[in-house]
Amino acid sequence: MREVKFFEEGKVVVGLTGGIGSGKSTVSRILQKKGYPLIDLDKISHEVIEYPEVIEKLVKAFDEDILDENGKISRRKLGAVVFGNKEKLREINSIMHPVILAEMRRQVRLLEKINKIVFVEIQLLFEVKWEKEFDVILLVYVDRETQIKRVMERDGRTFEEVEKIINSQINLEDKKKKSDYVIDNTKKLKKWNWKLKKIFKKNWKFRRRFRERWKKMKNFFKLVILVIGILLIGWLCLPYNLLIIGSDARPWEEMKGTRADGLILVKVVPLLAKVDMISIPRDTYAEIPCEDNWKRDKITHSFAFGSVRDGKDGGRKCTIEAVENLLETKINYSVVFRFDDVINLTTLIGGVDIVANHTFTQDEQHFDEGKKYRISGERALAYTRHRKSDGAFERDGRQRQVMQEIIKKLVKPSGWKYIPRVYKYVNKRMEISANPVKALAVLPAILLKKDGITQKEITGDGKMMNGIYYFIPNEESLEKAKEDFSMDFNLGF
Description:
- The chain is an alpha/beta fold.
- It has 18 helices and 19 strands.
- The strands form 6 sheets. It has a 6-stranded mixed beta sheet, with helices on both faces. It has a 5-stranded parallel beta sheet with strand order 2-3-1-4-5, sandwiched between helices. The protein has a two-stranded antiparallel ribbon with strand order 9-10.
- Strand 13 and strand 14 form a beta hairpin.
- Helix 10 (301-310) crosses helix 11.
């Protein structure tokens, strides 16, 4: 088999197509005579129809009437069954075409190993919509008048019969528009070898130009991807505030009307692996946005007033606004949890290790200061709830401690197995407003920050007003908290 001289590199699969009487078979014979490898789809279809699995499917679809005396498919009988019946023709095609296509691909792969160009003769290329199988589509064209005349002379058919066959196929004029190159065979094939060489030399130049353009485009796409990557990294590195709201609702209670038993604001600056946490004392005397004229009250009541006034999500929104107003900042995300969430989360991950920061007994659970414990469930709840013997700030410290240990356990490789069940629980049971992609940006901070999460503090004094205890923040301490949790992008410097 002679190598095609005008190809310098690469492989090309050419779909050679046409219409009945266009001279496609004549071109195929010339190509083969000159040494070009050619796959005949009509021949493949004749072979495929004798495959046992194909015979079985066709008989199942059209009964044994389509078999000849040797138990093979009679193409004449099969043709009579589907003649004029588009539905039955589609059924045959659904059985035959996948097998024919698989065999064509197999033969193409074999021939490509030793040839730079492979021709595939396929009359109904456009009808079966296999255009994507070929690098180049070459059409052998004739005008309609010549086409009818040739088929009548060759097959001895009437004008009406030939016209009916032609009308059942896509018009050659339409095929011409869809093809890459056209050989006009209306008169006679002349200088065919020169034409083919010219066509494929031209096509190879086109393919080479395309590759050069693609190289330039690839560099452009690389630049675009780089810019997008930089923007994404920049977005992920922007600081964000997360407000954790702990409702004092018991497992059997609704959130509506309950108070925010714990308020912890977390600021993350992933670029610097910087995580700051600050507890806002529940009795802090602050303006409540969901009260008339922003009436001052305990900040813990913002959750209760908001949920009563505006329903389920009202408590979260009112609490966020109250904290934003108090610290003059922006809260990006929030999480609302209740007592049973502490029980369930610590149980789901097999408990967390803590060192008790105070000696106390709560709900029949005893802790000694400085002693290490692994806590989960009711014991974890007791540890985070107690505040009678040491105060709200120490209680907030215990809550931070448990939350920090939960997060640390989840980001360690040994804790990854718990993530699916925790994610499922949080999505189903807790009120969470957070961007999951942005939330992942906290992981490097936790992993890289060897000295842990920095805990901030709002100091102040208690004051009785109308017989009610309030916490009045120290002005200097409050200003420092505003500075630390500001959303101005100064990278924490």
